Description:
Strand 2 and strand 3 form a beta hairpin. By secondary structure, this protein is an alpha+beta fold. It is built from five helices and six strands. The protein has helices spanning 19-27, 74-91, 124-167, 171-179, 183-202; strands spanning 3-7, 30-36, 41-48, 54-62, 65-71, 109-110. The longest helix has 44 residues, at 124-167. It folds into two domains: 3-122, no CATH class; 151-202. Strands 1-5-4-3-2-6 form a six-stranded antiparallel β-sheet, with helices on both faces.
Amino acid sequence: MLRVIHSSVQTVGIDTDQEDGFEAAVRSGEQLRETYSKDARYDLVAYIDPDGLHRFAVRISEPSAYDWQDTHSFDEALALYEESVREAAEGMWTAVDEETGDELPPFEFTDVPGVQGYESGAEEAGTIKGRMLDAEWATEEADKAQRAADGTTRARQIAYARAIDKFGRGGNAYLARRLGLSEPTVKAIADRGRQILAEQAEGTTVGV
């Protein structure tokens, strides 16, 4: 989902006291795509926001306004970037070379297909880099989520073991009724919890 992080034309979607931090983070990010004229610039940047999250930002900087938005999704950022450039090109008045009379392209440089002045393949390097970063970041986040899930699973196994052992005889059946699980399922979870506790006491490393 797109989020406004720095803008002169709409309300930002972050705390106002964070705006400077986000602006600085984007400026130090990695530029993937760009389009520019003498007075305006549009670009797509990969960066890490002040909260430590991997994001893709689209910066629109025009003579009378600026509007920066970011998103977790590379596809969403890419679509916004290209759409913004195309809309800007369509809205510009046509300039003409005074010497030759030839129509001038709206931008000095653009890597957006379909916009006058685009050179075939200009977008490929930046888009490939963005795709690779997207895959890399998705892997990091998946690994982080898996580690968190593993920790939650171990915590449940230990909790079952301690609760049943504290309850005494019949604890397994009682907990199974409370949780709406089968007794064999609860027993298996608790048994794994007891194994983890035993291995921790011995100082060995355990998995889920």
